[in-house]
């Protein structure tokens, strides 16, 4: 099987045993993303302090791509400022949807783990699975 | 691994695969194993060629041109109507209304017949309806103050006939709208009984036959139904063509659904009068070539014969239930008493979309998701399933490939 290209180790591992699942105590922001096509749902709880993301945890019901993407997103944005995180959301979506070249995304300091989703560009019907948590993040950070 | 050989398909249907050019395609370098026919079936050469021939040699708009080409097109279009009337056992060819799909046919009934239902009366559907036979009735409910009732299913995936009877008992149900075969569970509903029970309390009944007509002979007069709908593309015909059959007196009494050309008798700025059926319900230029294509598909299906089709699909379904039950962690959803060639399943907690993507990487096409039946999924306590569905060209070998690939996918995840 050549599933290694998409279902690589980090995606499979994080989908089986997410490291950032749960609910943040004293969360300051909440976000939710749902995909009506498959019923996947991402719930985020975030605690921010002076516009910095201190902690972000998720409750995700979804496929391997969706769970892994949410978990890796949590890792990537924790410690960033809200503006930085929103910028990363745009870059990640752009990388998948518009096929920004890997060089460009390297310039933008895309964390390596998020590059695991690059093979999705040839699985267009599954793009939404990976971008769903980022939609939820935008909701959480855009609405105080 | 080649599945193009006639030796694989059952003896009765040998040679059929060769008539489907798409089946020899490779996907991701693997032979295509197409197990998504319940979503849309592939098309035999005879349909593809027949439609192309019409557009190449005898095509014009129908019913309005006074020239040779228009007359030939009109003849072909109306011959398709006659053919479909015979196929369904309709008493009159005027009872066949061409729509664009089954969804439009149901919307037509919900809008038009729905306008004749009084506030306080009810429409009765079931828990296993496709959104196409649910949302139009919700819209009618909200528009016209009509109650929408939902007949439950049993845990095995059959309609709960006792509950169905109770929902009919107060005599308020004006119309029952129910599937003839579930697109998720494969359940074939007891149409005769449902119709008898509806008529006993004075209700009319619509059967959504989108899945059923593919697998069995349907005779609307024998069934004693009032409305029957199906779509062309699941029956080896083209997309863009669907059928509404209804009793003549019902169609006569119903107001038009859409206004436009071809559906009028006369038009002034003050008032228009309607053409007789079926033209009253066919506003604008219809799907002419697609109607002809559906007629060809029906000729093709009937040449094979529903006895052979049913035997082939029953054998495939039995085989599939056997081999799939041996895949560790796999659960088939629903065990209805009578089922067609549609099997929904889950596998441990591997998400159906991951199953579908990994099957696709191996050339195997299945459907995954809620199958346009979200309330049914909730009833079953699921958010999604994977679904394999079979057609005349499906082989046992393809089902074996599905099962062995599922085993490998499971090893990968668990």
From TrEMBL, chain A:
One of the record's GO molecular function terms: iron ion binding
Pfam families for this protein: NifU_N (PF01592)
Residues annotated as domain NIF system FeS cluster assembly NifU N-terminal: 7-96
CDD domains listed in its UniProt record: IscU_like
BP GO annotations: iron-sulfur cluster assembly
InterPro entries, per database record: NIF_FeS_clus_asmbl_NifU_N
NCBIfam families to which the protein is assigned, alphabetical: SUF_scaf_2
Matches recorded under PANTHER family: IRON-SULFUR CLUSTER ASSEMBLY ENZYME NIFU HOMOLOG (PTHR10093)
Name assigned to this protein: Iron-sulfur cluster assembly scaffold protein
Species this protein is from: Acetobacter oeni
From TrEMBL, chain B:
Highest taxon listed in the record's lineage: Bacteria
GO molecular function, one term: pyridoxal phosphate binding
Name of the molecule in the record: cysteine desulfurase
Keyword list, A-Z: Pyridoxal phosphate, Transferase
EC code(s) of this entry: 2.8.1.7
GO terms under biological process: cysteine metabolic process
Keyword Protein biosynthesis: no
């Amino acid at each position: 099987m050549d599933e290694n290209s998409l279902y690589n180790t980090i995606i499979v591992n994080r989908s089986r045993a997410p490291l950032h699942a749960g609910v943040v105590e004293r969360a300051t922001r909440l976000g939710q993303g749902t995909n009506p096509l498959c019923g996947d749902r991402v719930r985020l709880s975030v605690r921010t302090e002076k516009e910095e993301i201190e902690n972000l945890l998720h409750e995700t019901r979804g496929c391997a791509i969706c769970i892994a993407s949410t978990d890796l997103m949590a890792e990537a944005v924790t410690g960033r400022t809200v503006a930085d995180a929103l910028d990363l959301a745009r870059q990640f979506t752009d990388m998948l949807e518009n096929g920004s070249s890997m060089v460009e995304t390297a310039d933008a300091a895309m964390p390596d783990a998020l590059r695991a989703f690059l093979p999705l560009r040839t699985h267009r019907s599954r793009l939404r699975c990976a971008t769903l948590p980022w939609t939820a993040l935008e909701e959480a950070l855009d609405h105080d | 691994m080649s599945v193009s050989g006639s030796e694989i398909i059952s003896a009765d249907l040998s040679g059929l695969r060769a008539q489907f050019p798409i089946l020899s395609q490779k996907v991701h370098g693997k032979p295509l194993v197409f197990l998504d026919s319940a979503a849309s079936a592939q098309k035999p050469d005879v349909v593809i060629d027949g439609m192309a021939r019409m557009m190449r040699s005898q095509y014009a708009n129908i019913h309005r041109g006074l020239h040779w080409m228009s007359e030939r097109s009109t003849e072909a279009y109306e011959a398709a109507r006659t053919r479909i009337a015979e196929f369904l056992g309709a008493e009159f060819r005027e009872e066949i209304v061409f729509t664009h799909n089954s969804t439009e046919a149901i919307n037509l009934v919900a809008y038009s017949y729905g306008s004749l239902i009084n506030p306080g009366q009810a429409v009765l559907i079931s828990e296993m309806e496709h959104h196409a036979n649910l949302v139009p009735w919700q819209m009618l409910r909200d528009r016209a103050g009509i109650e929408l009732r939902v007949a439950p299913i049993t845990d095995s995936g059959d309609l709960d006939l006792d509950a169905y009877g109770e929902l009919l008992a107060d005599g308020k149900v004006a119309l029952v709208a129910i599937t003839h075969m579930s697109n998720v569970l494969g359940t074939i509903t007891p149409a005769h009984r449902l119709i008898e029970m509806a008529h006993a309390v004075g209700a009319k009944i619509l059967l959504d036959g989108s899945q059923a007509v593919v697998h069995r002979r349907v005779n609307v007069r024998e069934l004693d139904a009032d409305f029957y709908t199906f779509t062309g593309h699941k029956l080896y015909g083209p997309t863009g063509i669907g059928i509404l059959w209804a009793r003549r007196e019902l169609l006569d009494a119903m107001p038009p659904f859409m206004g436009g050309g071809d559906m009028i008798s006369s038009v002034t700025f003050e008032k228009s009068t309607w053409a007789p059926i079926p033209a009253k319900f066919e506003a604008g230029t219809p799907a002419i070539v697609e109607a002809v294509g559906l007629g060809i598909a029906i000729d093709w299906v009937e040449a094979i014969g529903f006895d052979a089709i049913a035997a082939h699909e029953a054998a495939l379904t039995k085989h599939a239930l056997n081999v799939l039950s041996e895949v560790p962690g796999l659960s088939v959803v629903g065990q209805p008493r009578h089922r067609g060639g549609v099997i929904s399943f889950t596998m441990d907690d591997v998400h159906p979309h991951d199953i579908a993507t990994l099957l696709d990487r191996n050339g195997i096409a299945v459907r995954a998701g809620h199958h346009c039946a979200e309330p049914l999924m909730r009833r079953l306590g699921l958010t999604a399933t994977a679904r394999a569905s079979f057609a005349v060209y499906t082989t046992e070998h393809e089902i074996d490939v599905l099962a062995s690939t599922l085993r490998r996918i499971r090893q990968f995840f668990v």
